[in-house]
Amino acid sequence: MNRLLPALLALALSPAVMAHGAHEHGVADLEVAVDGSQLAIALKTPLDNLVGFEHEPRTAAQKKALADAETRLRDFPALFVLPAAAGCALTDVSVESPWPQGDHGHAHDHGHKHDDHGHDHGAHSDMHVEYVLECANPAALNELQSRLGEAFPRMERVRVQSATPRGQGSATLTRTRNKLPL
Predict the structure, then answer these.
(1) How far apart are CA 179 and CA 80, in angstroms?
(2) Chain segment 113-159, per-residue pLDDT in tens
(3) Could you give phi then psi for residue 63, rounded to 5 degrees?
(4) Angle at the Cα of 144 (from 74 to 80), degrees rounded to 5?
(5) pLDDT for 95-105, tens place per residue?
(6) N or C end of the chain, less CB within 10 A?
(7) Torsions phi, psi of 134, nearest 5?
(8) DSSP sequence for the chain
(9) Which pLDDT does position 6 carry in this prediction?
(10) Rounded distance, CA 42 to CA 93, Å?
(11) Within 13 Å, how many C-alpha atoms sit on residue 65's CB side?
(12) CA angle 34, 170, 127 (to 5 degrees)
């Protein structure tokens, strides 16, 4: 993963990404990088796309919705399809939630006052997810299919930036146009 981090950072800080990186309901941003046998995917989405709200969960139903979204985001095969011939296996997944609900990530209350945590609870809230995969046959890694719109119906579009051995690219995926050439 250490080799992919510079590629993802360069991609994330590129002018094209910065121009469309604004918080927009119904839209998520996806960065895809292939480096040797490693595939890294970073997803940033407004919390509203996942659960229908962006404030700190107040009710049991809202807490459950957020916990369920965190669980679904960890289920890579339910969200993305890669060519079987590439032989990719998930080696790491990281979900960063403004209000973690599961046993993953850090606890929200860890020894300091809630007011000092650094979240602006009245502002927009995003979920960040990173996936790292190791591929046995990266030459066969020619396409990524997104199922994000099926898993999260409020997510209408996914803006994608990619960096692969074949070059850099950008695309917008929807439920019906959900395949990204790599």
Answers:
(1) 10
(2) 334 344 444 567 999 999 999 999 999 999 999 999 999 999 999 99
(3) -65, -40
(4) 25
(5) 999 887 765 44
(6) N
(7) -110, 130
(8) -TTHHHHHHHHHTSHHHHHH-S--TTEEEEEEEEETTEEEEEEEEEHHHHHS--SPP-SHHHHHHHHHHHHHHH-HHHHEE--GGG-EEEEEEEEE-SS--SSSS--S-SSS-GGGS---TTS--EEEEEEEEEES-GGG--EEEE-HHHH-TT--EEEEEEEETTEEEEEEE-SSS-EEE-
(9) 54
(10) 10
(11) 17
(12) 75
Residue pLDDT, tens place only, 12-63: 444 444 444 566 889 999 999 999 999 999 999 999 999 999 999 999 999 9
Residues counted in the chain: 182
